[in-house]
Design a protein that fits this description.
Largest sheet of chain B: 7 strands, mixed
Radius of gyration of chain A: 13 Å
Helix content of chain A: under 10%
Radius of gyration of chain B: 13 Å
Distance between the termini of chain B: 36 Å
Oligomer: heterodimer
Order of helices and strands of chain B: EEEEEEEEEEE
Shape of chain B: globular
Chain lengths: 120, 107
């Protein structure tokens, strides 16, 4: 069973860039799976941010596309998220998740989530 | 974006109850709807994918049905450990979107 572990700064100042990483352990990242970031805040519920395929493809939520970058480092088994110009609306728990092979956007494995607060 | 309208938003239940949650998609989502369970402080857990397929290891009291714009999720014989919030998700079109959730509470 693959395990995912997110990590990040916890607190980010407004207008700065949020950087998060997700390490894939107990499993491979070089698989036919899409890897997504999802966030959850009390005001907006669950929000899909984007997805990346280890072989290079990426899709972003249009609502965030101008501020969002995702990347993958297969040698480190790590997926990264970068969100620029953050505001308090970006305060949320951020999860990374793996899509099933047979149903690419059904998320069968999730990290435990990392809380990010945007505040000066 | 495809909007997922989930109802009810909250439900008071008892052990043994049959619980029904619905999601209406704003556009045809074919059968690309999934259902998740989330307990406080935990990540969501996939229960049903592609509208009606039971995820490995999930008890058979959980089931799903539907296609197009109308989807239903049922818990047959609610157990105490089923108290949680449940979400639907459409994956037919990007961006992927979720329903607002249904919270189950004991009566």
């Amino acid at each position: 069973q693959v395990q995912l572990q997110e990590s990040g700064p916890g607190l980010v100042k407004p207008s700065e860039t949020l950087s998060l990483t997700c390490v894939v352990s107990s499993g491979s990242i070089r698989t036919n799976n899409w890897w997504s970031w999802v966030r959850q805040s009390p005001g907006k519920g669950l929000e899909w941010l984007g997805e990346i395929y280890p072989h290079g493809s990426v899709n972003y939520n249009p609502s965030l596309e101008s501020r969002l970058t995702m990347s993958v480092d297969t040698s480190k088994k790590q997926i990264s998220l970068y969100l620029t110009s953050v505001t308090d609306a970006d305060t949320a728990v951020y999860y990374c998740a793996r899509g099933k092979t047979v149903s690419p956007n059904a998320f069968d494995s999730w990290g435990q989530g990392t809380m990010v607060t945007v505040s000066s | 974006d495809i909007q997922m309208t989930q109802s009810p938003s909250a439900l008071s239940v008892s052990v043994g109850d049959t619980v029904t949650i619905t999601c209406q998609a704003s556009q045809d989502s074919k059968n690309y709807v999934n259902w998740y369970q989330q307990k406080p402080g935990k990540a969501p857990k996939l229960l049903i994918y592609d509208a009606s397929s039971l995820e490995t290891g999930v008890p058979s009291r959980f089931s799903g049905s539907g296609s197009g714009t109308q989807f239903t999720f049922i818990i047959s014989g609610l157990q105490p450990e089923d108290l949680a919030t449940y979400f639907c998700q459409q994956t037919n079109d990007l961006p992927i979107t979720f329903g607002q959730g249904t919270r189950l509470d004991f009566k």
